[in-house]
Amino acid sequence: MTDQLLPEGLVDFLLFDWLGLDEVLARPEHADLDRVAVGAFLSLADRMAKEHFLPHYKTADREEPYLTQDGEVRALQAIAPALKAHAEAGFVAAPFPEKLGGLGLPELVQLAASGSFMAANVASAGYPMLTLGNARLMARYGTEAQIAAFVPKQLDGTACGTMCLSEPQAGSSLADVRTRAEPEGEDDLGARYRLTGTKMWISGGDHDLSETIHHLVLAKIPGPDGKLPEGTRGLSLFVVPKHLPGGERNDIAVAGLNHKMGYRGTTNCLLNFGEGTRFAPGGKAGAVGWLVGEAGQGLAIMFHMMNEARIGVGLGAAALAMRSHAVSVEYARTRLQGRSDPKGAPVPIAAHADVARMLTRQKALAEGALSLILFCARLVDDRNSAPTPEARRAADALLGLLTPAAKTWSSEQGLEACAIGIQVHGGYGYTRDFDVEQLYRDQRLNPIHEGTTGIQGIDFLGRKLMKEQGAGLDQLDARIAATVAAAGELAPEAALLQAAWARFGEVRTALPQIARGNWQGVATDLLDGFGQVLVGWMLLDQALKADPTTEFGQERRTLARFFLGSELPRAERAFALALSAPVPVLAF
Predict the structure, then answer these.
(1) Annotated catalytic residue within 107, 367, 450, 493
(2) What percent of the chain has pLDDT over 70?
(3) Do residues 372 and 14 lie in contact, with contact meaning Cβ atoms separated by under 8 Å?
(4) Residues 101 and 21 in one domain
């Protein structure tokens, strides 16, 4: 079985030749970094992912976490040394500034490195992904005392981090959150509260893989009448550690574990805050937490981590698709079946036209997803460090527009790529002997993680296009026009892209009409079509930037031609649905 994760040549091309990482490295924020340092960091990520994460990929799937009789969660112990090695090598701390022990690494490099760990073992890589997001939020919104108490422990691997949003009765509808936060005065860490309530679907919610866990919890502070405020404006954010700074166990109990079809190595918990039956700090029930930011601003602050997590889910989806493609190619090149010549010897199935078509489509979907995620990472870098305020604002607007597509297209089409991997393997594909079966099961969670596909569609159409008037679309229009103008010998494919983009322009013009109808019914299709155009443009742009005299350059051209000719037409269906009378649906 191949151990290929993210191909070095492809990543190098995407970062430097396509996305212009050199320009980012030239900024003062990254003065200590150069191509050599970036190459060493990515090579280290690839090596450590293969040595520490890949070996227990299948074991963690077979040996799921379990809950002991005394309420403790036990996970596969092979994960613990992997997480320790990952943190000690500085992969969690790397994007943080030097004053917090980091390298000030650009997001482009950080995500490329994280992709190697996710391709090797997406479940184990989920722990540091959440921890990084938690620490970043705390570093941005926490007080100096809170940062000192909670961030360094996450960066050095002592603590893992989570985000606690959903409840049994409140999944995507966070307005219905009922967890209470009762004020308990002030201390060195700020406004102190006692939390009571239940949180559901908490990835990494409890385990024995780190010394402690820091939870970021959405809850509501009751009003003078004792009632919780209604709606999302009443949500506040609290940092609630498993162990208090003095070492005492906080009042957080695991009520149960969710047993998933994939990502089995990542614990997923039902947590009771303030149960008071086993742990009660100071002899009083209620989990101790500290307010992060301002009261009532919890959801706005939490979106910092949620949007980062959406890009992270998209990266995981792209990494799983890349891994599925790598093992599928290896299998297709070595599996002998069928003959090109009736009198000849059996040939590898890769020689059969339909298998070659499937592998090409799988590659286009996987690399398209990776391209979309890394493009967003470049926008994060521009938002953070572009030389002018105007450029930073422009990057932020385009990133906001693309985030729903980055999360959704990557996870939905990454799932299709993993399905192709099973098909290429034939009967062997759906057995547990081959990785593609597990890769598919892991991938199936991503269209649900961090906001389902439907939620992302509603966000894209209802908020990004209707409410925000498509902020960032003019930038995208200019980028696509520049690519089309430079198409040269790829002019026929560029014409297909131009026509699809013009069709999307018709949708923009018709937004008032769409808003008056059942717009939520077409939102998901519209987001999918938008993603198709995005990826078609990216693959064409890459084909134009690759050296056509090389094998790699010719491959980029073939991939662009395949996608624009075979996959892009799906966008027309999506745009036609948005522009036509609503398709009737049954009432259930």
Answers:
(1) 450
(2) 100
(3) no
(4) yes
